[in-house]
UniProtKB/TrEMBL annotation, chain A:
Species this chain originates from: Pseudooceanicola atlanticus
Similarity comment text for this entry: Belongs to the binding-protein-dependent transport system permease family.
Record protein name field: Peptide ABC transporter permease
CDD domains: TM_PBP2
Mode of membrane association: Multi-pass membrane protein
SUPFAM superfamilies for this protein: MetI-like
Main localization category: membrane
Cellular component, GO, one term: plasma membrane
Keyword vocabulary terms for this entry: Cell membrane, Membrane, Transmembrane, Transmembrane helix, Transport
């Protein structure tokens, strides 16, 4: 178990390193002075000289990477080109908005999608199954950014039920919550359908297994057979899927933050790209990567905990 | 529970009456069961025997109402007491399941939920009982102990994957007996197990019947199991009951030609040693078509013109019924059934294979061959401090095969016999030792250099259909070896037809695809492909696996004919001892990757030297109810995992004759005669066998 | 199911009666599959929408009532009228014509993106499934990393360095969708790798390329083609999404994403633009999803898992 954990953590570290290397080399692969790229064309010669010295740009590339790595590991991701504030601080201000959005979006999708998938699988061909089937295809088919735009148009601009932009007044929980509803709805909608289908397919497969027939042959109640036996096994691939799907959810969240002008990390990266504000882009990408690696790791550990076969093979 | 059922005092516990059932498939309605009727008598063990496609398991599942979704009962009743199980509602049926009627499944690997421990699975079965959780657990522990699980107090918390195959099936039986059911249904309960395990399970189930007064219905294709275990027998063929009766009547006085033919085809019942085995020619009829007359008519040696059109009469006799024109009515034949000594099936005795010349240099020489499998990564081994992060799948194996000779490699699952076969053919890397073919060292040769040798050595794989590339036609499959090894100037179509003729496969089959073939036909394609390059050695891995008794003879006869014609050598890898007796010149017995005994087949069978050989020879249940073994005859325990290989003799953990001297070191191989070796410190041939038995505590 | 090879030599030998039956049942099975397809409303809807997508994209220059880039300033920001059934944008360009032409971009990306990532994914997946363990682990790690990495973040990082272009969109599309095919191909190959028929081929001396392309590929390609139908919506959505963010197809070229982008900027004054721009996107994704699912249900009912 400990070996497994170490292996997974080692692997995660390797991926983070690879991303760091990629980000670093990107800045160096494109033609032009990295200092100008990093500081923007408006930078003064003094600033460029100072930056060149500070970032060791006059030293060999490998040494530069070691310095870059060293400071990144110490939590120093550089400074915002315009305000000169530490990137880490800027991300710290914004990450809460992103986390709230992602967790709420996935949360409601799981709470609705998993039971729907179960219901559909228990009675294949019933009206619940058919309605779920059609709706879930519909929900998957609409790209999340389109859901965001249309939800904004319908619920904010036309019906005026919910606020359109921003994240709400700081400290006002109800206001913040009302700003969370639409984007969370938008990024979770596709997931409801996706999870419903996934759970349904997984349940149907498990329901065909011989051990489900044995459970029925021993006279267990249908309820116990479905919830205690079939779902217990069918949930395992679903957990992996949720873990793997977080990357997609992060993408959706970036769109939602941009469309609803929500001051999260995604919006920050997007704005920084337009401004060619590279330290911010670097920091944001790094945080997003780290988050997704953490989620995948957690889902793997959850599987290992829930599945005795995996547990004992570790 | 049982006291309430006063009407159960009647002798019949369950009565199946005129049951008919259809499966809806994309080929049309399959009439899987037609007019099935038989009683199950209280307190007895009833066996339903039949080959694949006979519908024997379907009968079992229809009793419990657990049929597949595309099945539909079209007629009949299943009376249990005063209730018809086919008309019971879901609630009433569920009340019955587990409590009064319980099941043992074929494959304990897939029929037990992998994510719950046995304690939970078993207390779930007791959910209807007003017992505390602690009492349920205690009941589970007691039942596990009763079925022979060692240390049940802690094992009850184990998960299925932590048990070995035999233990899993014991646990499966424990689960089914937990509620003390009136009726136990067992679906091929030993098919997934090895011979020595099978004997144990038969003893266990008979014991449970006596202790719990449970009626058992067991479904099997294994005549030995039926003869040894059952009191009454139902013989099924292609969805119909052809004969019923008490076990002695069925095995010694069979009246239906199919029953008779089935028994005569069983190699274990053929006393003389012959290269040619009897067969029932033909295939079972297409059950989607309208059926008239006798279902067996198309394959019956005694068939008359009327058999194909006129339904046979149901003829009563003391203990059962049979359905045949020969027995009653205008077509009755007083000379039927003939005495047991008369053969009623096709047995191709002509052109008997000449005895192979055993002289000459060996074609294949294997010396001290070792194969190892890694059990963990190098890093993990380092961290855990494991010095040997691998197991020995094959350990110091030596064997010779001479031209024209058949060597059978016999062992239970996990004995390394398949690995050995693959290593000889360079499909698996060897860790040490030597393999010489025709005098040339070929062990661990690079594939590029080995390729020309593949012309001389071919392999037949276990699964007849699964070893054929599914998207290739038969023509492409059997000519592929020619393409691989350069077919310049050859007419591939002509070659394909030549090969098809050689294995007696109709030429029309050349354009078929593997999934359109029956098991026997697919096996012929496998033989044809192996023969394409005129090899000198064929390694055949379980050549009769997946084939019914009535068909396996065709393949073995074909192989014998080809051997006589082309002077082939065979290395036959199998667990099927009765078959080996007929086809092998010499046999080698493997246990845990080591050869424990080898020698001429007849001698080894008649006079085993190693206790394991004797356990194997005696472990096969005899298809004769008069030759039942006492329950104690079964050898105890299970093949240990390779991870826990004993330090001394590998068999010492299970050997009834093991002494202290067996445990410190592996016994060397010793010769009895130049042709016969064993690896036992106290071989059975040294002293009087019986004397040895009594002396050992 | 591949068509059975017709062989003139065979007709010379008398075909068995049973052989004819097998042929007949194979034909019946094909007919039944076709019937099941044609009676499934989702399948038919999917097929109609997909045909519509191809036709409108291919024939856009002839169907479109206006030049997609022709500005008609007096008629700018017009709502849906008979002259402009989907309205006009802030430059007075006809939205409907722009949608039709935008379909060409979607088709271009879908065709090149799907075929490129299908081929690369197939080969990589087979290598991962059949090759040595370490290579499998490495490729699997790469597949998982790329597949679950947020595509938008990747696109933003790339565009930050290279600037937006259609090539970047295509590269992102191919890169992010390779793992789907790769994983399916790997799983299927891995399942086949230890089957007896592959072992049998090895025992005959068949070379690794022969085993991969003659024996494994025909068994792997079917599910991959169905997957390709289901991946078209993903590809089209990525293009639209990136173009919507202004980091994909650049104005003035019409694409569904740029129409949405321009519409979003004027969403309060001209809401019909984001509505009209979204409809073709939804119809296309629905069409391919329905079609893919129907094909999967008919040909490979067991494939539903794993994705």
């Amino acid at each position: 178990m400990i070996i497994y954990l170490m292996k997974r953590l080692g692997l995660a570290a390797i991926v983070v390193m690879a991303v760091l290397l990629l980000l670093f080399s990107m800045l160096h692969m494109i033609p032009g002075n990295p200092a100008i790229l990093a500081l923007g064309t408006r930078a003064t010669p003094e600033a460029i000289a100072e930056y060149t010295a500070r970032m060791h740009l006059d030293e060999p590339v490998l040494t530069q990477f070691v310095y870059f790595l060293g400071s990144a590991l110490q939590g120093d991701l550089g400074q915002d080109v315009f305000s000169n504030r530490a990137v880490v601080d800027i991300i710290g201000e914004r990450i809460g908005f992103s986390l709230a959005l992602i967790c709420t979006g996935m949360g409601w999708a799981v709470l609705l999608g998993v039971p729907l998938g179960c219901l559909a699988a228990v009675r294949p061909g019933s009206w619940v199954d058919r309605v779920t089937g059609v709706f879930s295809v519909g929900m998957i088919a609409v790209p999340s950014f389109l859901v965001s735009i249309w939800a904004l148009l319908l619920f904010s601009l036309e019906l005026r039920w919910l606020p359109a932009i921003g994240a709400g007044e700081p400290g006002d929980f109800a206001d913040q919550l009302s700003h969370l509803v639409l984007p969370a709805f938008a990024i979770g909608l596709g997931w409801v359908g996706y999870l419903a289908r996934m759970v349904r397919a997984s349940m149907l497969e498990v329901m065909g297994e011989p051990y489900i027939r044995s459970a029925r042959a021993f006279g267990l109640t249908p309820r116990r057979v479905v919830l205690g036996y079939a779902l217990r096994v069918a949930i395992l691939p679903t957990i992996t899927l949720i873990g793997m799907g977080f990357g997609g959810l992060i993408s959706s969240a970036v769109f939602a933050e941009i469309i609803f002008a929500r001051p999260g990390v995604g919006k920050m990266i997007f704005d920084a790209v337009s401004d060619r504000n590279f330290p911010i882009v670097q920091g944001g990408v790094l945080v997003a990567t780290g988050f997704y690696i953490l989620v995948v790791l957690m889902s793997d550990l959850l599987i290992a905990w829930l599945d005795p076969r995996v547990r004992s093979s570790l | 529970m049982k006291d309430m059922d006063t009407h159960m005092t009647d002798e019949t516990l369950l009565n199946i009456d005129a049951l008919s059932l259809e499966f809806r498939t994309n080929r049309g309605q399959v009439k899987a069961l037609r007019d099935i009727s038989f009683p199950v008598k209280k307190g007895r063990i009833l066996g339903i025997v039949g080959e694949s496609g006979s519908g024997k398991s379907t009968v079992l599942w229809s009793i419990l109402g657990l049929l597949a979704g595309n099945a539909k009962v079209t007629a009949g009743r299943v009376d249990y007491g005063d209730r018809d199980l086919l008309t019971l509602d879901a609630e009433a049926l569920r009340a019955l399941r587990g409590e009064e009627v319980s099941v043992v499944f074929q494959d304990p690997m897939t029929s037990q939920i992998p994510v719950l421990p046995y304690a939970r699975q078993m207390s779930d079965i007791l959910y209807r009982r007003a017992m505390s959780e602690a009492d349920k657990r205690a009941a589970a522990v007691d039942m596990l102990r009763r079925v022979g699980i060692p240390d049940p107090e802690s094992r009850v918390d184990a998960y299925p994957h932590q048990f070995s195959g035999g233990m899993r099936q014991r646990a499966g039986i424990a689960m089914s007996m937990l509620t003390g059911p009136n009726l136990l249904l067992a679906d091929e309960p030993t098919t997934a197990l090895d011979v020595t395990m099978e004997a144990q399970m038969i003893g266990l189930m008979r014991g449970l019947r006596d202790d719990f007064d449970t009626t058992i219905v067991v479904v099997s294709h294994n005549l030995g199991l039926i003869a040894e275990m059952c009191d009454d027998v139902v013989v099924m063929y292609a969805g119909e009951v052809v004969e019923t009766g008490e076990v002695h009547d069925i095995f010694h006085n069979a009246r239906h030609p199919y029953t008779r033919a089935l028994l005569e085809c069983d190699p274990a019942r053929i006393a003389d040693v012959s290269r040619k085995l009897p067969v029932i020619p033909g295939d079972i009829p297409d059950l989607t078509k309208p059926l008239a007359g006798c279902i067996f008519a198309s394959r019956c040696q005694k068939a008359m013109p009327a058999c194909a059109t006129k339904a046979p009469p149901l003829v009563e006799r003391g203990t059962g019924v049979a359905r045949c024109h020969l027995l009653e009515g205008p077509l009755a034949d007083a000379s039927w059934p003939p005495p047991a000594s008369v053969s009623t099936v096709a047995r191709d005795d002509g052109a008997a294979a000449p005895l192979p010349a055993n002289a000459g240099e060996p074609l294949l020489e294997v010396r001290d061959l070792n194969v190892q499998f890694r059990t963990m990564g190098a890093l993990k081994a380092r961290i855990r401090g494991v010095a040997r992060p691998f197991v020995d799948a094959v350990l110091d194996v030596s064997l010779d095969i001479r031209p024209g000779e058949t060597l059978a490699l016999v062992g239970e699952s996990g004995s390394g016999k398949t690995t050995l076969g693959r290593t000889i053919l360079n499909l698996q890397a060897a860790a040490g030792g030597s393999v010489r073919f025709d005098g040339t060292e070929i062990g661990n040769m690079a594939e590029r250099r080995f390729k020309p040798l593949r012309r001389d050595m071919a392999m037949m794989f276990q699964d007849p259909t699964g070893s054929l590339s599914p998207r290739k036609s038969v023509r492409a499959l059997i000519t592929e070896p020619l393409l691989i090894h350069g077919a310049e100037g050859r007419d591939l179509d002509a070659e394909a037809e030549r090969l098809a003729d050689m294995v007696r496969l109709p030429r029309g089959f050349l354009s078929r695809y593997p999934h359109e073939l029956s098991g026997g036909q697919a096996r012929r394609v496998g033989v044809a492909r192996a023969l394409a390059l005129n090899p000198r050695l064929i390694v055949a891995d379980e050549p009769t696996a997946g084939l019914d008794v009535s068909v396996q003879g065709e393949i073995l006869n074909l192989m014998a004919d080809l051997q006589a014609e082309h002077g082939l050598s065979y290395l036959i890898i199998t667990h099927n001892l009765p078959v080996v007796r007929h086809i092998a010149d010499r046999i080698a017995i493997m246990y845990l990757g080591r050869i424990v005994e080898d020698g001429p087949a007849a001698e080894v069978f008649a006079n085993p030297a190693h206790p394991y050989t004797r356990a194997l020879v005696e472990g096969v249940p005899q298809p004769d109810p008069d030759r039942r073994r006492p329950p104690s005859a079964a050898i105890e325990g299970e093949v240990p995992s390779l991870l826990r290989r004993p330090k001394g003799c590998d068999f010492a953990t299970r050997c009834p004759l093991a002494r202290d001297a067996c445990r410190p070191a592996k016994p060397e191989h010793r010769h009895i005669t130049p042709d016969r070796r064993h690896a036992c410190l106290f071989p059975l041939t040294d002293t009087q066998d019986n004397k040895n038995k009594t002396e050992t505590p | 199911m591949s068509a059975l090879p017709s062989d003139p030599a065979r007709s010379a030998t008398a075909p068995e009666a049973q052989d004819g039956e097998a042929r007949e049942s194979a034909g019946r099975e094909r007919r039944e599959k076709l019937m099941r397809f044609l009676t499934d409303w989702q399948a038919v809807t999917g097929l109609v929408l997909v045909v519509l997508f191809f036709a409108s994209a291919l024939f856009a220059p002839w169907i479109a009532p206006y030049d997609p880039n022709a500005m008609d300033i007096p008629a700018r920001m017009s709502g849906p009228t008979w002259a402009h059934i989907a309205g006009t944008d802030q430059l007075g360009r006809d939205t409907f014509s722009r949608i039709l032409h935008g379909g060409r971009v979607a088709l271009y990306i879908a065709a090149i993106g799907v075929s490129a990532s299908l081929s690369i994914g197939l080969v990589l997946g087979m290598i991962a499934g059949y090759g040595p363990r370490w290579l499998d682990n490495l490729l699997l790690l790469a597949f998982d990393a790329v597949r679950s990495f947020p595509a938008v973040i990747l696109a933003l990082a790339t565009v930050a360095l290279t600037g937006p272009s259609l090539t970047v969109v295509l590269a992102i599309v191919i890169l992010t969708t390779i793992p789907s095919y790769g994983r399916v191909a790997r799983t299927a190959t891995l399942a086949l790798r230890h089957t007896e028929f592959i072992l049998a081929e090895r025992s005959l001396g068949a070379s690794t390329p022969r085993i991969l392309f003659q024996h494994i590929m025909p068994n792997v390609i079917g599910p991959l083609l169905i997957l390709a139908a289901m991946e078209v919506p993903v590809v089209v959505s990525i293009e639209a999404g990136l173009s919507f963010l202004g980091i994909g197809v650049l104005p003035p070229q019409a694409s569904w994403g740029t129409i949405l982008n321009e519409g979003y900027l004027v969403i309060r004054d001209a809401p019909w633009m984001v509505v009209a721009g979204g409809i073709p996107l939804i119809l296309t994704t629905l069409g391919f999803t329905f079609l893919g699912e129907a094909l999967r249900d008919i040909f490979d009912p067991r494939m539903g898992r794993g994705r």
